[in-house]
Each structure stands twice: as C-alpha cells, then as structure tokens.
Amino acid sequence: MSVAVLVNVRARHGSEQIGALIRNILPEATVGVTHSLDEARAWVGRNLAATMPDILLSGGGDGTAVTLLNEVRREGLSLNTFGLLPLGTGNGWARATGVSSKGAALRGLGALRGNPAPPTRTFSLVETEGRVTPFAGTGWDAEILSDYRQMLDALPEELRTARGGTAGYMRSLFSRTIPRHLGGRARPIVRLVNLGEPALRVDAAGRAVPVEDGGPGAVLYEGPISVGGAATTEELGLGFKAFRFAHLVPGRMAVRIYAASTLGATLRMPWLWRGVHPLPDDHNFMLTRCRMEFDRAVPFEIGGDLAGDRTSVELALSEQSVPLVDWRRMPRAR
Fold first, then answer.
1. What is the model's pTM?
2. CATH architecture classification, 3-124+325-329
3. Residue 236 has what pLDDT?
4. pLDDT, tens digit (0-9, with 9 covering 90-100), for 322-334
5. Which sequence spans correspond to the domains of the chain?
C-alpha cells in the first residue's frame, strides 16, 4: 500500500515536527511539508503526477483538504482514496469521518499502517466556480471566519494555538460579528433560483417533499438572508451542524437559507449549533443545481477559505465524488 501525506504548516496544528512524526509512524510514506499554495502545487506535480498513491492524506483543515483535492483535479489525476488528518481549526469534514483532533489523527495513522485496505466512506461534492468542495456559502459563517482570522492574525504567533479553536471562534462571534449586526446593519436580500432537477424541500418532519412548480427557473426563496449555502457534509467544523440534511437524499446537495434576525439567531444559538429542526425562518432544500443572487456584494467562502465578495454564485452537485478513509471504522492499531 502506497501512502502520500501533505502537511500544511500554516494550519493551526501543522508543523515540521508533525511532518517528522508522520514519517516515523509511516516510514514508507511520501510526506510533504508545505508553507504555501505554490509549494503544495509543486509537491503534487513532483510526487503525484507520475504515480498516484493508494491513499492520499491531507494534513490541515478543511481548506487544506479542498485545496489538495482541487490541485489533484487540476492535474487531471485519478484519486484512489483520500484521507483527512485534522490539523486545522474547524475540521468539519474530518469530523464526519470520525477523527477530530491531532492525537486522534496520529493514532489513526498507526492503525492505517496495519490495514492495507482501510474502510472508506464516499462523499458527494459541491461544485462552484470550477472548484469542488464539501461546502460553500455566504453570510455569518463567512463573516465569522474572516473575523476569526483577523483576530488570530493580530495575536503573537506563540498565542495563536492557545487562543484558537472553539473558544476563539466563539469569542470572535460574540465580540465582533454579532455586535456589528446588532448595530442595525440591514441584511442582504437573496433570490434562490433552481437550475436543475425539480426541487425538493425539507418539511417540518424532516422529510424531502416536492416543491410545487419547482422545476428549472423556479424561484424557491426571495427575502433576507443571514447565512446560507450548499453542502454534502453535515458539519462546518467545531461541532456546528449547519447542514443536518446533507445526506437526506442521495444524488442531491443540501441548500439552506437561514433568515432569522441577528437577535433571533443569537437567542437560538444552542439549537442552531446542534442542527435542531424545524426552526423559524429556516429554509432547507435538496437540489442538484441552483443560483443565489444578492442585492449587494456578500462574502463567499469555499470549503473553509474566503473566496472574496460576490453578487451571484452558482452551486451544483459535482459529477465527482470522493472515497474518504473512514477512521470511525478503522481497527485499532496493534
């Protein structure tokens, strides 16, 4: 079994030392420790273009995994099995495969060494702007991510790890993002247009039911938006189940628009975090392709990385899916 591992040292728990630990655990693996996107691209071209390994592992956060996945795609390479080592902050996609911490990742590598055919779980992907990702969206999540990154960047490097994670994320949410919106800032207006197969919506009982006259061109929602996007995985990271219905209908992506006011959302934060359904002002659809049109530029994020401001985005279920190492079902290391 051949294994290649990319470690992003810019991820919260990424470092040269982690790269050395991985080499000790998997001495036959090809391990790359990179500091930038250019270095990651060079590593992919140098180590994967000729022979794709049986298992390719991404050591970083969701953004690292999405970047690596798209670099492999850009090179036209065929991916065998992909695996996620949670060395970032949120690690939402990794948590969906049963691993949520640096220690758990390293223990998983020990188990991988003795299992030439690890168990896998296949994930569909969202495609937007020529990239594939398990989630993409706009609204508070993108704003919180921006505020969180700014907060960490303002700290001395030695404090960033200690003040990151869930506590840092929540500190950023309640000290920066929410106060800015409570100051009276008007919410954007979004128009959600179906561009694919007849739309399904999620009813109060959590069932997918047809939308009347919901074919291509139908306007599924028009009104204020606080947060919204599309996903094929339930969690955005740190335990936040933003897309509870991501796996409700095979062959569909979950599209959600949450339209509550800042105050209403803040009061319901525990229920929002756990993915409780139904909630007031919450709209969930199961679609194959759609477009979101905004009345002003809004921040847009793809797989945990900010992509800039947009007035319109198209989101589609990709034809590509990816088999991920399912650490939850991996036998323990001997």
1. 0.89
2. 3-Layer(aba) Sandwich (3.40)
3. 83
4. 999 999 888 765 5
5. 3-124+325-329, 135-322
Summarize pLDDT for 67-89 with one digit per residue, the tens: 999 999 999 999 999 999 999 87
The pair of structure tokens assigned to 118 is 């690890």
CATH number of 135-322: 2.60.200.40
